[in-house]
Design a protein that fits this description.
290 residues, Helicase, Ruva Protein, domain 3, 12 helices, 9 strands, binds S-adenosylmethionine
C-alpha cells in the first residue's frame, strides 16, 4: 500500500487532527493510536479479508485501521466508547459508505443482536487494535456469545499474546491459554514496539490471530464446568492440582476424590495444573462430574 503524505499513516497528519479537534488522549480508554504503516499492512494482510466479509472493529480511534478495513471488506462496524472521537471519525471516514460507527462500550453491546442486525448472521472477522485494559473480557465475550466468528486478528499486550499461545510447562501457560485454545488456534503475527503508537504505550505489543475452530478440539459434557476446573487448577498456581481443586471447590470434592480421579487418568498425585494439556483437563472435568 502506498505511503501517502496525507494519510493517517503519517504521524503529523494524526497530530494535526488531534490538534484540530482538541482531542485529549484518555489513558483510561487505552488510547494508543497506531501510526506505523507496515504494522497496519501486516494486520490487514493477516485478516485475509474479501469484499464478501463483514468486519467488527473494536475501538476505531481516529479511524486509521477502519479506512483500510473499509477498503478490504464488504462491511465494517466499528464500536467506539469515546464520543470525543466521533467528529474525527466523521471526517476521516466520510468517504467510506460501508462503515457504521457505534458509540458504545463493547462490553455492554449485545453481540448476538449486533451480529443479526448488522451482519445478518454471516461470518464475522474481528480486527482491532484493542484497548488493553479489557482484552480478556472482550475475547471471552466474543467466543462465548456464540456469534458466527471467522477469525480474530488483534493487537494486544505482548505478555497477553504470549499467554494465549503458551502450552503446558511454560510459565505463561494458564487459564487464558486454555480458554483461548479451546475455541481457536492462536498464532502470533508480529511483535510491535512502543514506537509504532501515539502516544507510546509503556508495554510491548503483539498482533495475534485466533482462528476459530468449527468444533472445539476436545469434547466435554459441560463446557462451563471445564472452565471452572481450569480456573480452580490455576487460582493457586504454586499448589498441586489436588490441593488447588479441593480448595477451589471448597467442600464439593474431598482430597481423596480428586486423588482418585487423577489416578484413574494416570496422572501423578503431585502434578500441578500447569502440566496438564487441554485434553487432560477435558477428561478431568468429565470424571469430576460423574
Ligand atoms: N484502532 C485505533 C488505532 O489502531 O489507532 C485505536 C486503538 S486504541 C489502542 C483503543 C481504542 O479503543 C480507543 O479508540 C478507545 O477509545 C477504544 N475503547 C476503549 N475502551 C472501549 C470500550 N469499552 N468499548 C469500545 N471502545 C473502547
Amino acid at each position: 500500500m502506498e505511503e501517502n503524505k496525507n494519510t493517517l499513516r503519517n504521524p503529523s497528519v494524526v497530530s494535526g487532527l488531534v490538534k484540530k479537534y482538541q482531542f485529549a488522549f484518555q489513558k483510561k480508554y487505552g488510547q494508543n493510536f497506531l501510526i506505523d504503516g507496515n504494522i497496519l499492512d501486516k494486520i490487514i494482510q493477516a485478516s485475509e479479508l474479501t469484499k464478501e466479509d463483514g468486519v467488527l472493529e473494536i475501538g476505531p480511534g481516529i479511524g486509521t485501521m477502519t479506512q483500510e478495513l473499509a477498503r478490504a471488506a464488504g462491511k465494517v462496524v466499528s464500536v467506539e466508547i469515546d464520543k470525543m472521537l466521533l467528529p474525527i471519525l466523521a471526517e476521516t471516514l466520510k468517504e467510506y459508505e460501508n462503515v457504521t460507527v457505534i458509540n458504545e462500550d463493547i462490553l455492554k453491546v449485545d453481540l448476538k443482536q449486533l451480529a443479526e442486525e448488522q451482519f445478518e448472521n454471516r461470518p464475522i472477522s474481528v480486527t482491532a487494535n484493542l484497548p488493553y485494559y479489557i482484552t480478556t473480557p472482550i475475547i471471552m465475550n466474543l467466543f462465548e456469545s456464540g456469534i458466527p466468528l471467522k477469525s480474530i486478528t488483534i493487537m494486544v499486550q505482548k505478555e497477553v499474546a504470549d499467554r494465549m499461545q503458551a502450552g503446558p510447562g511454560s510459565k505463561d501457560y494458564g487459564a487464558l491459554s486454555l480458554a483461548v485454545q479451546y475455541y481457536a488456534k492462536p498464532e502470533i503475527v508480529t511483535y510491535v514496539s512502543a514506537g509504532c503508537f501515539m502516544p507510546k504505550p509503556k508495554v510491548g505489543s503483539a498482533v495475534i490471530q485466533l482462528k476459530k475452530y468449527e468444533i472445539p478440539p476436545v469434547k466435554v459434557q459441560d463446557e462451563a464446568f471445564l472452565f471452572q476446573v481450569i480456573r480452580g487448577a490455576f487460582h493457586q498456581r504454586r499448589k498441586t492440582l489436588v490441593n488447588g481443586l479441593t480448595n477451589y471447590f471448597s467442600g464439593k470434592y474431598t482430597k481423596e476424590q480428586v486423588q482418585t480421579v487423577l489416578l484413574e487418568l494416570g496422572l501423578p498425585l503431585t502434578i500441578r495444573g500447569e502440566a496438564l494439556t487441554l485434553d487432560q483437563f477435558a477428561k478431568l472435568s468429565d470424571r469430576l462430574l460423574q
